[in-house]
Write a structure and sequence with these properties.
By secondary structure, this protein is of the alpha/beta class. The protein folds into two domains: 2-172, HUPs (Rossmann fold), CATH 3.40.50; 190-247, no CATH class. 40% of the residues lie in helices and 11% in strands. Strand 3 (49-54), helix 3 (74-84) and strand 4 (88-90) form a beta-alpha-beta unit. The longest helix has 22 residues, at 192-213. The protein starts with a strand and ends in a 25-residue tail after the last helix.
């Protein structure tokens, strides 16, 4: 595995390979876990070379969010990336990506202002801006994102479509712990009680899916089932929303199922 910290070094390395190799890209913020590694495995199914980036993007964090304490175990991340078959690990610093505050950015539009975007204003604008920059830097044929962050993946797909970006976006399945908790870099912040309580999320999803497969088709009732399971653990969800798979990259139509 080759690790490069600068855009120039990455361009030089990829420049030698582009003509004969298909490139897949896995953008991350580091603190890698098996979910990230599954994205690399998926990427290898679509390309000859896998580039992974590790960059904690400040523009997607709100003023009261956890940018300062977001985990940055770079040495361990390098080891995991090497072991799982990453070919090039791109680890830019802040000034490499943002040498100056950007004047032109990407707006997620109305779709970025609902659901998670409603409680994290500006979050998806920050995500799409850095993803667009990384796409232009790496210029992959394929990019792989996780289904866990479904709204993010849908917005990336929509950006690629609306802006005619020459990259195919693959959305890979969510990877879960044996107890059902979706793997996340932030899980390390959970204490024992928080970990136990968080399992209500997967139980709520499972109950909602079971109700749907048993014949319940009302989005409102299905969402109420999910909220009720969360309420049993005294959790108040910021957002519970059901959408058709075909609506993921839609601009925000209210059809839901």
């Amino acid at each position: 595995m080759l690790q490069v910290p600068t855009i120039a070094a990455l361009e030089e390395e990829l420049g030698r390979r582009r003509a004969s190799s298909r490139i897949a890209f896995v953008p991350t913020m580091g603190a890698l876990h098996d979910g990230h590694l599954s994205l690399v495995e998926c990427a290898h199914q679509h390309a000859d070379i896998v580039v992974m980036s590790i960059f904690v993007n400040p523009r997607q964090f709100g003023p009261r969010e956890d940018f300062a304490r977001y985990p940055r175990p770079l040495e361990n991340d390098e080891r995991l990336a090497r072991e799982c078959g990453v070919d090039i690990l791109f680890t830019p610093g802040l000034r490499e990506i943002y040498p100056a505050p950007p004047t032109v950015t990407v707006s997620a539009g109305a779709m970025g202002e609902k659901w998670e975007g409603e409680v994290r204003p500006g979050h998806f604008d920050g995500v799409l801006t850095v993803v667009a920059k990384l796409f232009n830097i790496v210029r992959p044929q394929v990019a792989v994102f996780g289904q866990k962050d479904l709204q993010q993946a849908a917005l990336v797909q929509r950006m690629v479509s609306d802006l005619n970006m020459p990259v195919s976006v693959v959305v890979a399945d969510t990877v879960r712990e044996p107890d059902g908790l979706a793997m996340s870099s932030r899980n390390r912040f959970l204490d024992a009680d928080g970990r136990r309580t968080s399992l209500a999320l997967s139980r709520a999803l499972s109950a909602t899916v079971e109700a749907f497969t048993s014949g319940e088709e009302s989005p409102r009732k299905l969402e109420q089932i999910g909220r009720a399971l969360l309420a049993e653990e005294r959790l108040s969800a910021r957002c519970v929303a059901l959408r058709r798979v075909s609506d993921r990259a839609a601009s925000g139509g209210e059809k839901s199922r």
